[in-house]
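Re: that backbone. Tokens:
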């Protein structure tokens, strides 16, 4: 029901039997500037004159955009939840600043040239919701459990006692340096460990955020995304009193801020990720939202204790080029390990010793079988799969893939679902001759002594494989592999600049073929 009144013209609300009465005070511009009182009766709101069972639920909209909804759950009094929606504002004054102080029951609204203070009636309670274009919100809660929704950039929050929830509207911003400021309530000097502030981050992963000097920002593109600024005084109170701040991201993963003692800047998930690289049998399930740069590998215990590959990469790294810091490099150890990487970002995964299973689903990757009998399985990207020893199974998925299989004593099986993939058989001497034959639907390549066997499986309903076989005497050295990884790191860094929130879209332009051809 549309009211021909403004929100601050509601003077009182009362109940008469089954009805609710709104008393309005209006200044109509008369000569004596006297207030005129009107009365509005909402008929048959309740079933009877005694109980609070609703018969009709009236939703009211004021001229200045306030939406009033009767709370059906309140048993002892009339209670209207109010919201502000700019699209319902029919007045000439569009609100630009909206400040709610729940301790003093006060609303302050600001326009282009003036402000208005509204003292809330006892029958009113803020719903926590408002909507408007470039609307700056100020929140000062009380000691109750409150919920606030649609918090936009340039808003500010004063944390109070109770278990409160704050929903950030979006982390995607139109302008640089947009932020939400967070500080402590003016009415208390401390919070206790019973007070919990929940921040809901609706369109970003907590794994993509970093916290440093009071700023919670995107770890790759801080200027393009909203930041949350925590006042230093508040941070000191958090440390002193163990106040809980929880951040719930788009995937409903719950994080806490890093502690000073941790020396880390990434958020800490409350649920153990069960990540560890050890000499035992490790199982690593890497979620899609977790992009593992060097800092993340260290924070989440995925750094190898000793890395020959990374040490070579550091010696090759050019000054002021930090791209290798952003490329996930996982080097497994001696156990029979299982790694499933759901992330779309490029990565390098080395199986190390042991019989390992490595699976990637999206993006472009370098997978290294290492020692042992390994199973490498790639997805839709253009991947490089390397097998140097053991009885290995390589599956490149549906991209344009490159395989490097070193001749040795043993058998390797390759199954490729892509197009225009190429397989390099390395380490062949001038005397080595590969004998090819068809075995069932598959093709088999073996040395004359039968010590090395390569089986190339064909796709279903095909008689010939689309994979091109290339024979070479050369082998891929660690230095050459490091050079290829450096190139992938630069490509990966470019991909990171195109992220939208936590959405990572792999580029189709990457191909390891020119790099492999250069080094073999």
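Recovered sequence:
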């Amino acid at each position: 029901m549309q009211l021909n009144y403004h929100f601050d013209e509601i003077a009182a609300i009362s109940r008469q039997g089954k009805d609710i009465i709104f008393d309005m005070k209006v200044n109509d511009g008369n000569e004596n500037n006297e207030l005129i009182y009107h009365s509005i009766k909402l008929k048959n709101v309740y079933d009877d004159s005694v109980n609070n069972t609703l018969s009709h639920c009236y939703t009211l909209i004021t001229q200045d955009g306030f939406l009033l909804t009767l709370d059906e759950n309140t048993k002892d009094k009339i209670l209207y939840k109010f919201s502000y929606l700019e699209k319902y504002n029919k007045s000439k004054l569009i609100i630009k600043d909206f400040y709610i102080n729940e301790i003093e029951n006060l609303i302050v609204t600001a326009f282009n040239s003036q402000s208005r203070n509204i003292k809330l009636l006892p029958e009113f309670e803020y719903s926590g919701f408002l909507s408007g274009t470039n609307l700056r919100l100020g929140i000062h809660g009380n000691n109750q459990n409150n919920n606030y929704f649609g918090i936009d950039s340039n808003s500010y929050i004063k944390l109070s006692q109770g278990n409160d929830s704050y929903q950030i509207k979006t982390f995607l911003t139109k302008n640089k340096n947009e932020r939400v400021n967070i500080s402590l309530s003016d009415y208390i000097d401390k919070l206790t460990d019973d007070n919990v502030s929940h921040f809901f981050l609706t369109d970003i992963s907590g794994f993509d955020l970093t916290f440093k000097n009071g700023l919670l920002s995107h770890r790759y593109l801080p200027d393009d995304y909203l930041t949350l600024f925590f006042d230093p005084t508040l941070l000191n109170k958090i440390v002193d009193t163990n106040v809980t701040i929880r951040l719930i991201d788009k995937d409903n993963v719950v994080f806490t801020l890093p502690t000073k003692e941790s020396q880390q800047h990434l958020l800490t998930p409350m649920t153990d990720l069960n990540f560890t690289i050890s000499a035992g049998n490790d199982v690593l399930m890497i979620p899609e939202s977790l992009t593992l740069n060097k800092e993340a590998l260290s924070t989440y215990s995925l750094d190898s204790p000793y890395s020959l590959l990374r040490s070579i990469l550091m010696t090759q790294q050019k000054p002021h080029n930090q791209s290798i810091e952003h490329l996930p490099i996982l080097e497994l150890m001696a156990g029979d390990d299982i790694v499933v990487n759901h992330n779309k970002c490029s990565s390098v995964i080395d199986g190390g010793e042991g019989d390992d299973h490595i699976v990637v689903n999206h993006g472009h990757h370098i997978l290294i079988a290492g020692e042992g009998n390994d199973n490498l399985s790639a997805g839709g990207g253009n991947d490089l799969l390397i097998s140097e020893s053991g009885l290995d199974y390589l599956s490149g998925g549906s991209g344009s893939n490159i395989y490097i299989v070193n001749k040795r004593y043993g058998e390797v099986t390759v199954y490729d679902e892509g197009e225009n993939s190429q397989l390099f058989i390395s380490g062949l001497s001038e005397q080595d001759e590969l004998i090819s034959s068809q075995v069932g639907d598959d093709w088999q390549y073996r040395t004359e002594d039968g010590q090395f066997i390569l089986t190339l499986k064909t796709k279903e309903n095909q008689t010939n494989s689309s994979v091109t076989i290339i024979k070479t005497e050369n082998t891929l050295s660690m230095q050459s592999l490091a050079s290829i990884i450096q190139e992938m790191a630069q490509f990966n860094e470019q991909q990171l600049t195109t992220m939208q929130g936590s959405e990572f879209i792999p580029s189709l332009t990457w191909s390891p073929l020119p790099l492999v051809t250069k080094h073999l």
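The chain has two domains: 134-271, 283-519. The chain has a mean pLDDT of 88.
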